[in-house]
Every structure is written in structure tokens, then in C-alpha cells.
Amino acid sequence: MMQDNAAIVRRFVDEVITQGDFDAAVQFVWEDVVEQVPLPGQGPGLEGLKDILRAMRAAFPDLIFSIQEQVAEGDKVASRFEWTGTHQGTFLGVTPTGRSVRVWGVVIDRLEKGRIKDTRIIMDTLGLMMQLGVFPSPGV
Fold first, then answer.
1. How far is CA 93 from the centre of its chain?
2. I want to staple 65 with a disulfide (CB 3.0 to 4.6 A). Which of 3, 17, 41, 104 is the partner?
3. What torsion do the CA atoms of 19, 21, 27, 30 make, to the nearest 10 degrees?
4. Per the domain annotation, does 76 fall within a domain?
5. pLDDT digits (tens, 9 = 90+) for 54-94
6. CATH number at residue 27
7. Is residue 137 part of a domain?
8. Host domain of residue 60
């Protein structure tokens, strides 16, 4: 079952996030999914999740979200991810820069009956903002 949960998360990432098939999200995520750490402006439930994913896709049309490693235990799956994209639309208030970004993070999903019931994402938003030039990169 744990392997099944990890596979479900991988399919969600591939089909919904990377391929942009937001209508398919309901196959993988409950309508009342709880985002424990929502991105700024993210609304509740599946619709809120789809809205933030649409915003990411609009800002980074070439978005590729890839899972680097996963650990599954019980009803939870932890996935270390990386996403890349070119900043071509406003995202989190930052107007398009044309810059390419590479952002890492970890998401912990809890599944019920084969769908994600709650999720917690920890993403390197500061690193993203530095890559977009919002904050200066520290000198080495």
C-alpha cells in the first residue's frame, strides 16, 4: 500500500503539475484537501490547490516538477522535489523577469483511500526570490 501511495503522488506530480491537466487533480486529491502551509493567496481545498498550480503554470509555462526521492510510511509520503521553469508571468507579486529558476523542496502528503487528504509543502521560496532578483544573492 505504501508503494501505491508513492506511485499516486508521482502520478499527480506528473499528470497534474508537469503536464498541466488540472481537471485530473480530482483523481488524486480530495475536494476538501487541507494545505497545511498554503502559499500566499492560496484558497482552501482542491480548488485552491488548482488555482495556485494554474498560477505557477501561468508564471512558468515550461514548468517541470520532478520528484528526486520519496519515503513512504503508513498513510504518508514524503517527496523531495525540484522544479524548474522560466519566469514569464507574474508570480507571488513578482513581474516576469525571463529568468530560469531551479527550486527545491519537500512535500509531505497524507493519503486516504488512494487520494491526498492533507499536504504540507516546504519550498525554498527565498531561493526562488533570489533567483528572480527580488533579493540580492549573498556574496561568497
1. 18
2. 17
3. 100
4. yes
5. 999 999 999 999 999 999 999 999 999 999 999 999 998 99
6. 3.10.450.50
7. no
8. 2-131
